[in-house]
TrEMBL record:
InterPro entries per UniProt: AraC-bd (IPR003313), Homeodomain-like_sf (IPR009057), HTH-like (IPR037923), HTH_AraC (IPR018060), RmlC-like_jellyroll (IPR014710)
A GO MF term: sequence-specific DNA binding
Name of this chain's protein: HTH araC/xylS-type domain-containing protein
SUPFAM superfamilies per UniProt: Homeodomain-like, Regulatory protein AraC
Organism lineage: Bacteria, Pseudomonadati, Bacteroidota, Cytophagia, Cytophagales
UniProt superkingdom: Bacteria
Record carries keyword rRNA-binding: no
Pfam families named in the record: AraC_binding, HTH_18
Chain ranges of the HTH araC/xylS-type domain: 173-271
Keyword Transcription: yes
Keywords tagged on the record: DNA-binding, Transcription, Transcription regulation
SMART domains: HTH_ARAC
Organism in which the protein naturally occurs: Roseivirga echinicomitans
Length: 273
């Protein structure tokens, strides 16, 4: 193991969005992150598994996987795959003037695995791929329109009620995005409430309404998930992980981790490696 996870970038520096057929020679990959982009993988053929963070999914086409920029994922594919990979970089989202596309992407990012209607979705991927291969992103309205249709179809298949809500990104979604920002994770509700220009009490109320959890519970889940990733996929010491996750000392982190998992960090690492 290494102290640094591999970070892959499948795009050229000038690309803000990219689509290509899923490579048929992909079988097993090492755990890795992506370089500031959101990935949508649509598979129409293949078998095996896809692991996102610590959650393993069986590949049963037609199937769609999404991978956020902060997530670790890897493949263990057993038979020849077929489908498409759609990459959306942060630059595209920042530059996009269509607020509905941003809302659709924010909603879709909550679904790591979907089982869509391939009959209606596959033609959209085929057309988008053909358009991109012929013209790149030069035909922006065409690409944006096709992307919007794909996102809408995906959320329809997930029966996601939020797809038809207001274009405004909610405070809850902003809160989740703040948790996903690297090097800013902390176990303090007041810290995030301040960044959201609200009070801890109001942030708790928002979380209760959206997720039936307190803000503390949501933060705890995220911290434990990040701790597990670091324990599984790096050889950082428990003390280094404690510091990275903003705990005052190793002892505090160990007690916190054990309270949520019933294992010490070292025991968790030994059990799963």
């Amino acid at each position: 193991m290494t102290t640094q996870l591999e970070i892959k970038d499948k795009t050229a520096p000038i690309d803000s969005i990219k689509i290509s057929p899923f490579r048929k020679n992909i079988r097993k990959t090492t755990p890795h992150k992506h370089n500031s982009y959101f990935e949508i993988i649509f598979l129409t053929e293949g078998s095996g598994t896809h692991t996102t963070d610590t959650q393993k999914f069986e590949i049963v086409p037609p199937i769609v996987f999404t991978v956020r920029k902060e997530q670790i994922h890897f493949w263990n594919i057993e038979t020849e795959p077929s489908g498409y990979v759609l990459i959306i970089k942060k630059q595209y989202i920042d530059d996009c003037l269509d607020k509905e596309i941003k809302q659709l992407l924010a909603t879709l990012s909550a679904y790591p695995c979907l089982y869509p209607n391939a009959q209606s979705l596959e033609p959209l991927f085929e057309i988008l791929n053909q358009e991109y291969q012929e013209n790149g992103y030069s035909q922006k309205p065409v690409v944006d329109g096709l992307l919007k249709a794909i996102l809408g179809k995906l959320l329809l298949s997930a029966k996601a009620e939020k797809a038809s809500e207001s274009n405004k990104v909610s405070d809850f979604q902003h809160f989740k995005e703040l948790l996903n920002q690297e090097n800013q994770l902390t176990n303090k509700v007041a810290h995030y409430a301040k960044l959201l220009h609200t009070t801890p009490q109001n942030l708790n109320a928002i979380c209760r309404k959206e997720a039936n959890q307190s803000a503390t519970e949501i933060i705890s889940e995220h911290i434990i998930s990040e701790a597990k990733r670091l324990l599984l996929y790096t050889d950082l010491t428990v003390n280094e992980i404690s510091h990275k996750l903003d705990f005052k000392d190793n002892s505090h982190f160990t007690k916190y981790f054990k309270r949520h998992t019933e294992l010490t960090p070292n025991a968790f690492r030994k059990e799963l490696l």
